[in-house]
Amino acid sequence: MHKKHFNIELFTHKIQEKVKFHEIDLLGICNNAVYFNYFEDARLDYAKNLVKKYNLQKYFQGNSFFIMAHNEADYYQSAFLDDELTIYTRIEFVKKSSWGHEHFVVRSSTGEVLTHGKGILVHIDKKSKKPSPLPEEVVLAIRDFDKEVKIID
């Protein structure tokens, strides 16, 4: 598998993580499943920033919610105990009732890409439990926040 390169300019959001003792395995490396926790931390922080910047609270509380429909990761290098990591996150695309995140995990000290991941969140109506169209105001906010987002009709 070839290591994927990324254009840091496309990523409007990043968080820092530090590999903790309970996240490593017997080989002393960060367990592969932990990266999905890092992705989740990044998505939640991304959403908090989006909601605050564009005053979208009413769309993230109330009659709908988001569920994770797909998660994937490619691993290139291992992280070790106490490694400082930067998780870069962006929304890659928006569809009628979903959006796709893209993540890169980078060792902060070297800039080396360790992991590339993607995930899809679906907007669900609480009553019907079925996918629900994203509010236009949310789509416009995402488009403004992530300039290179693809809008797929």
In brief:
This protein has 153 residues and is of the alpha+beta class.
Write the layout of secondary structure elements.
Blueprint: E1 13-18, H1 34-54, E2 64-75, E3 84-94, E4 98-107, E5 113-125, H2 136-145, E6 150-151
Parallel strand pairs: 3-6
Antiparallel strand pairs: 1-3, 2-5, 3-4, 4-5
What CATH architecture do you see? Roll
What gross morphology would you assign? globular
Structural class: alpha+beta
What letter string, H or E per element, gives the SSE order? EHEEEEHE
Helicity level: 10-25%
What's the CATH superfamily, by name?
A: Hotdog Thioesterase
User: What is the top-level CATH class?
Assistant: Alpha Beta
Radius of gyration: 16 Å
Taking the alpha carbons of the first and last residues, their distance comes to 32 Å
Oligomer designation = single chain
Question: How many domains would you count in the coordinates?
Answer: 1
How many strands? 6
- Strand residue content: 35-45%
**Average pLDDT taken over every residue:** 94
Q: Which regions have little confidence, pLDDT < 50, spanning 5+ residues?
A: none
CATH topology, by name, is Thiol Ester Dehydrase, Chain A
